[in-house]
Specification:
Dxylulose-5-P_synthase, EC 2.2.1.7
């Protein structure tokens, strides 16, 4: 299932000349790939006794503030990635520094971490230098790596914003033709890339497909499923493993133990060369003809020989059917270009994995974001959980997701033997928690709302169907500001509250959050979930009290009024209180109630509100089919809709809300206090006042 390599410089000695134009003097007599750069030859490097660590290579621009940002003459001249092919190596290195300068300024303008993108600058330049995007398809697995890619594809002026009408934090096919596939939660690039490769072959096209995955997202099971399928189909595609010396695995906190030696660099170039790989394929074909026994013996010899020069684990990729090349210094543009050019020139070698080592710590001092001075919901949750864990030795924590909230370090340090961070393994986290529950422990399974979607089958069959007492802590619930639709927690109310055995609740404030931690700790006969938003709490000096368990299925009335009842769920209770204040200024006194529970619903509270008011407005920061639907189901079956009550739901719109500030997103969703108050005014026939309020 090969594809032609037209348009690529092939051969072992394809190289740059002094004028930085590619030369194509193709020979078959020199190993490894020769690149005319001003540095030591590969041969002398291979025999050197000095093994430099990758962290000592390259130049780092240290920027204490944006006023010291470098000038960017080369970057300013780049309109498309194709222009990179006209640059010299010296200019490519200068361009890397210019991009680094731009990305570092993002830290100060938007307070966003850019370390993964900083570590991938040279890799990004090499990819766009060798391949012909957008004809060739480059897929990025982790959005954190893609800022340099966005800079090179005409979006660098909007990079700092990630706000309303600004550049997306993710790759998006709607935003740029250079984004071959949308990224989000990670581990999808190889699957999508394989699909593109197979579609290319069926249609008889000739483009290359490159999937870039990092050492965090490669821990997810889907990545290995995709590699296994790629090996079986034997489609031509290239997988770049960007080993950025970072992993969520607790035993790998110091990053990858694989280093770049002169010998490994030398061998990577030999492995990627056409001569070596064609010879290897010829040998495999010959041993197959000789007999199965000889073929298996030769395969073992090949495996052991490659294992002697490759890192531990390289044979895993070979077993999955991918030809392994590496490790390659991810901060050495010359080496990257040499290896990638050779790989790109191949006609029919099946899937190839290039192991690239990068180092996020190179720019660590310049990319540290200012420590937050506001207390968050997560801070309060962890403090409350620590208090419960000190009283109950059966409480354990399982965390899953692409990154761990810093507040969880408090629990991890206090109870290291009762804390399990499994990384991007949400499915495992859920079933692991079910097993812990079966063993007599009390697991709190902490997963961001958007990532819990990945493990729904396990939630249904391994937890809810078996009535396992797993306590799901759903973080980053609702709108998430600049992280946009990918990280938005819009659906958990609907998909968790529909489960037969699940208790679903949400706190209105930090006090209620503390009480719900205590409530969850006391539930031992069924699963329970509670959600809270990403934001800060109002009182930064808030002291977490001792949690008091709440009666299951019991809401509360906060403010008594007439005619209109506002029934809020979770954080939207605060917006209902804001609406109450606005309406009070207009002479209206409405009721505000806190539902607390979506399931089981406080049917007595809902019935009382229906019987004592003309209008009931339910408010939630979730999609259609959530809390409001449970209320509607009850009041319809209870006959309340046959009486005087009129019900109106306020939910997230049926769509994806793009990046904006949290307040802007709430306004776009129609969930602000002003929107809630305007809805009440409209129901009362005071349309003009509603319009004035919104203006």
């Amino acid at each position: 299932m090969g594809s032609a390599s037209i348009g690529y410089q092939s051969g072992i000695s394809a190289r740059f000349d002094r004028n930085l134009n590619l030369r194509s003097d193709i020979t078959v007599s020199s190993l490894p790939c020769k690149v005319d750069f001003s540095r030591k030859s590969f041969l002398s490097a291979a025999t050197s006794t000095h093994n430099k660590e990758i962290s000592n290579r390259g130049r780092v621009c240290s920027l204490p503030n944006t006023d010291e940002k470098l000038e960017t003459p080369i970057l300013d001249s780049i309109e498309t990635p194709f222009q990179l092919k006209n640059l010299t190596v010296k200019e490519l290195k200068q361009l890397a520094d210019e991009i680094r300068s731009e990305l570092l300024s993002v830290v100060w303008k938007a307070r966003k971490s850019v370390k993964p993108s900083l570590a991938a600058i040279e890799l990004t330049l090499a990819l766009h230098y060798v391949f012909r995007a957008p004809v060739d398809k480059i897929l990025w697995d982790a959005v954190e790596q893609t800022y340099a890619h966005k800079v090179l594809t005409g979006r660098w002026s909007s990079i700092p914003s990630r706000q309303k009408n600004g550049v997306s934090g993710d790759t998006s096919r709607l935003e740029s033709e250079y984004d071959s596939f949308g990224t989000g939660h990670g581990c999808n690039s190889i699957s999508a890339g394989l699909g593109l490769a197979v579609a290319r072959d069926i249609k008889g096209k000739r483009d290359r497909v490159v999937a870039v995955i990092d050492s965090v997202t490669v821990t997810a099971g889907q990545a290995y499923e995709a590699m296994s399928s790629a090996g079986y189909l034997d489609s031509n595609m290239i997988v770049i493993l960007n080993d950025n010396r970072h992993s969520l695995h607790p035993n790998m906190a110091d990053g990858s133990k694989t280093s770049i030696s002169p010998l490994s660099s030398f061998m990577s170039k030999i492995q990627s060369s056409q001569i070596f790989r064609k010879f290897r394929e010829l040998a495999k074909a010959m041993t197959k003809k000789i007999g199965k026994g000889m073929y298996e013996w030769a395969a073992k010899v090949d495996e052991y020989a490659r294992g002697m020069v490759g890192p531990t684990g390289s044979t895993l990729f070979e077993e999955l059917g991918l030809y392994y090349i590496g490790p390659v210094d991810g901060h050495n543009i010359e080496d990257l270009v040499c290896v990638l050019r050779e790989v790109a020139s191949l006609d029919s070698m099946g899937p190839v994995l290039v192991h690239v080592i990068t180092d996020e710590k190179r720019d660590e001092e310049t990319t540290n974001i200012v420590v937050k001075d506001r207390r968050t919901y997560s801070d309060c949750f962890v403090e409350a959980l620590v208090m419960e864990a000190e009283k109950d030795r059966d409480i354990v924590v399982v965390h899953a997701g692409i990154e761990m909230d810093p507040s969880l370090v408090t629990f991890q340090e206090r109870f290291p033997d009762r804390f399990f961070n499994v990384g991007m393994a949400e499915q495992h986290a859920v079933t692991f928690s079910a097993g812990l529950s079966s063993g007599g422990l009390k697991p709190f399974c902490i997963i961001p709302s958007a990532f819990l979607q990945r493990a729904y089958d396990q939630v249904v069959h391994d937890v809810d169907r078996q009535r396992k007492a797993v306590r799901f802590v759903i973080t980053s619930a609702g709108l998430v500001g600049s992280d946009g639709p990918v990280q938005c927690g819009a659906f958990d109310i609907a998909f968790m509250s529909c489960l037969p055995n699940m208790i679903a609740m949400a706190p209105a404030n930090e006090d209620e959050l503390v009480n719900m931690v205590a409530t969850a700790a006391n539930i031992t006969d069924r699963p329970v979930c509670f959600r809270f938003p990403r934001g800060v709490i109002v009182n930064k000096n808030y002291l977490v009290p001792i949690g008091l368990p709440i009666e299951i299925g019991r809401g509360r009335v906060l403010l008594e009024g007439q005619e209109v009842a506002l029934l809020g769920y979770g954080a939207m209770v605060q917006n209902c209180l804001n609406a109450h204040s606005l309406l009070s200024k207009l002479g209206l006194n409405v009721t505000v109630a806190d539902a607390r529970f979506c399931k089981p619903l406080d049917i007595k509270l809902v019935r009382d509100l229906c019987q004592s008011h003309k209008f009931l407005i339910t408010v939630e920061e979730g999609c259609v089919g959530g809390f409001g639907s449970h209320v509607a189901q009850f009041i319809a079956l209870d006959g309340q809709l046959d009486g005087q009550i009129k019900w109106r739901p306020i939910v997230l719109p049926d769509g994806y809300i793009e990046e904006a500030s949290p307040n802007e997103q709430l306004a776009l969703a129609g969930l602000t206090g002003h929107h809630i108050a305007a809805t009440a005014l409209s129901l009362l026939g005071r349309t003009r006042e509603a319009l004035l309020l919104m203006s």
